[in-house]
Amino acid sequence: MFCEHPSKASIKPYPFCLAYPLEEAPHNLGHIENWIIEYKWDGIRGQLIMNNQKVALWSRGEELITDAFPEFFTQLENKCIPDAVLDGEIIPIDNQGNPAPFHSLQPRLGRKKPSKKILSQYPVKFRAYDLIEYNGEDLRLKPLIERKNKLNNLVAQLNVNIIDVSALLRCNSWEEADELRARANEMGSEGLMVKKKESIYHTGRKKGDWYKWKIDPQTIDAVLVYAQRGHGRRANLYTDYTFALWKGEELVPFTKAYSGLTDDEIRLVARFIRQNTLERFGPVRRVKPELVFEIAFEGIQPSKRHKAGIALRFPRIKRWRTDKKIEQADHLDTLLLKLESSMN
């Protein structure tokens, strides 16, 4: 019997197990021998479900995305596959099969039936890191280390190049783990995942079992150029900010950011905006370019929708640089060079 393409009502995913950010010193977690360390991959979290010779791929948002990634069905359709549910990440890959930057995945998003050209230009892989059902048995209450062993055996049995296992990292100390985390971007990774070996696959977040230990964010100094009022309890304050970088003698807007300031700082910035508005465009105010802020972000990707030609992933305000004048803000070329480096 061969694989069948699933209907939307066929096979449903389990609730996802989620991780907390690691915000304390890792030594507080105890002996590293009690933990599994692996890279945190930058892609789309998903569950690959094989049930009664049917294949389905679900996103963390419980959206059936099998049609958007038909290569999984294609590679498994002629195999006699066991019933199983794999948890992992759909990651973009380069021509050598190595992880590519997240923006390489963008052309695949929102397409229900990608063309052969898109499939060829933007290949993906399912990098599995957990097995939560096997041969009809719910494994969620089994220890993680046991589930990992079964996962390795299953992926070896499937023997398809579009599915692999997130490798465990050998670390004899938290210092060694931190060194790997600091170099994680060289592996196309966002940082490390730290999981207790004996942890079960619980629903949602449960502090103490799974942590994401991300690399330190990138930062850049930018100038506030536009502002707009917020919502809710901050509807009378300006909390929606647009920032710019230098391009020659011109300040070019490149990102928005909404969070990162204290309540006192928000009030001070709002007062500055009211006193230094140059133009109004409906709810938006163009302000005198005078305030400099350090913007933190997770990554850069090309964008045709933005004048600057780039877009930041997860931008937020790290701090108000009251010590800097606008002439000391960064240049757009700095980000363009970072983008070029990430694509090579």
Automatic annotation (TrEMBL):
Q: What is its EC number?
A: 6.5.1.1
One Gene Ontology term from the biological process aspect of the record? DNA recombination
Molecular function as annotated in GO: ATP binding; DNA ligase (ATP) activity; metal ion binding
Keyword annotations for this protein, in alphabetical order, are:
Cell cycle, Cell division, DNA damage, DNA recombination, DNA repair, Ligase, Magnesium, Metal-binding
Domain named ATP-dependent DNA ligase family profile: which ranges? 117-247
Query: What is the protein's name according to its record?
Result: DNA ligase (ATP)
Q: Spell out the reaction equation it catalyses.
A: ATP + (deoxyribonucleotide)n-3'-hydroxyl + 5'-phospho-(deoxyribonucleotide)m = (deoxyribonucleotide)n+m + AMP + diphosphate
Query: Ligase: present as a keyword of the record?
Result: yes
**What species is this protein from?**
Schleiferia thermophila
The record's listing under Pfam families reads: DNA_ligase_A_C, DNA_ligase_A_M
